[in-house]
Amino acid sequence: MKIDTACIHGYKRREPTGGISVPIYLASTYRHGSDESPDATNYVYSRIQNPTRETAEKVVAALEGGVEGYAFSTGMAAIATVMELFEPGDHIIATQDLYGGAIRLFRTVLEKRGLEFTFIDTGDIDAIKAALRPNTKGIYLETPTNPMMDITDISAVKAAITGRDILIVIDNTFLTPYFMNPLALGADIVIHSGTKYLGGHSDTTAGFAVVGSQDLVEKLRGLHVSIGACLSPFDSFLILRGIKTLALRMEKAQENALALARWLEGHPKISKVYYPGLPGHKGHEIMNKQCRGYGAMISFETDCVETAHNILQRTQLIAYAESLGCVNSLITIPALCTHEDLPEEERLARGITDRLLRFSVGIENVQDLIEDLRQAMG
Fold first, then answer.
1. CATH class assigned to 247-377
2. Rounded distance between C-alpha atoms, residue 128 and residue 130, angstroms
3. Are the C-beta atoms of residues 307 and 345 closer than 8 Å to each other?
4. DSSP state, 23?
């Protein structure tokens, strides 16, 4: 089954009524089967499992080619729960250019619990090898990264740690399983902020973690149930509805992104464009090797702060807003929004200046988006 078909038919829960859509099961508890087999129906309590959430989990797991999936109330809840797989004293190598919320979690919460982090350019395989320690137990990656669009060769990372008991965890929010399947490239766990492209309509928050091996199933299931940051039935329904159009949305948004990246490259008020679909991007060839597409996220640097400010304040179709991955286009300034907690020196060293904008390209007519940017820049 091709992935665009799988978005619609990848997992079918057989409903007693024959309904095509999965109902929203709002029951919080379920009648036991018998004294001998109290959970004969497979459902006991909705924190443990719910039919609507279970379907969403199986759909995302199927799209990622995973063994099992787990749905969370937010993407950050998914990240935080996965990180509970590690023990105090464990060392984790992380991509230096990560979503600011992940960095904040690692530094302000997990380091206090005894985890050790080293942030490096994970696109440099030699740097990964040099950062390895005897207590290294995890490598946490984004590719493309948020917001600088750096690329990591996942297969090369896997090869670099051959023989070591190290989990590779990858946040695949930007590309979705439609464009990339990290488990097939050597990752152990894939994370998604389902709030973004999987939902696709800015009407729900959700997170997912998909595991690639049976030995991780029970470990993560236990954490999922114990911590309890589970996705609600209604939000599970919204995610399932969103995934049905994932292929169409990703193709259209990517088509728009490539056209906009090329247009931005030629604009005199734009000094640099970061989009892995451009042949000049340093990770372009790796993307061609490990992905089926480039996604619809662009970052670009303006010629001055005034131009950046004008874009944020004057666009009419493109909304100045956080988040990403919905049908309408959104633009933000990472230095003041997603990465405001990073020390200024660190932000600037990573290229996150007050002239850098992150653009989540939607599915509008691309000429309308170009005209919106043109009039905003003047």
1. alpha beta
2. 5
3. no
4. P
Strand ranges of the sheet holding 189-193, from the earlier edge strand across to the other edge: 68-72, 207-211, 189-193, 167-171, 136-142, 91-95, 116-120
Candidate list 25, 30, 70, 99, residue with the active-site label: 99
Query: DSSP states of 26-43 as a string?
Result: --SB-----SS-TTTTS-
> What pLDDT does residue 37 have?
61
**In the predicted model, what is the mean pLDDT of residues 273-295?**
98
Indicate which residue of 47, 104, 244, 292 is catalytic.
Answer: 47
Better pLDDT: 11 or 224: 224
Q: What residue spans define the domains of the chain? A: 3-243, 247-377
Mean pLDDT of 262-272: 98
Pair 171, 199: CB distance under 8 Å = no
pLDDT at 31: 87
> Does residue 196 carry a catalytic annotation?
yes
d(CA 318, CA 329): 5
Find the catalytic residue in 171, 188, 235, 372.
Answer: 171
Under the banding of pLDDT at 50, 70 and 90, the label for residue 342 is confident
With 90 as the cut, is the pLDDT of residue 242 above it?
yes
Q: Is 3-243's fold the same as 247-377's? A: no
Number of residues assigned to the chain: 378
Residue-wise pLDDT tens digits, 25-40: 999 999 887 665 655 5
State mean pLDDT over 319-343. 93
Are 167 and 137 a contacting pair, CB within 8 Å? yes
The answer to whether 135 and 90 have CB atoms below 8 angstroms apart is yes
pLDDT per position as a tens digit, 202-224: 999 999 999 999 999 999 999 99
97 is catalytic: no
Q: Which residues pair with 142 in a beta bridge?
A: 171
Q: How far is CA 2 from the centre of its chain?
A: 22
Query: Which residue type sits at 170?
Result: I
Q: How far apart are CA 373 and CA 314, in angstroms?
A: 8
Marked catalytic residue, from 53, 58, 196, 358: 196
Rounded Cα–Cα distance for residues 52 and 32 (Å): 19
- Its CATH class, for the domain covering 3-243, is alpha beta
In the annotation, is 178 catalytic?
A: no
Write out pLDDT tens, residues 159-170. Answer: 999 999 999 999
DSSP at 129: H
Chain centroid, CA 146 distance in Å? 10
Examine the residue annotation and report whether 30 is marked as an active-site residue of this protein.
no
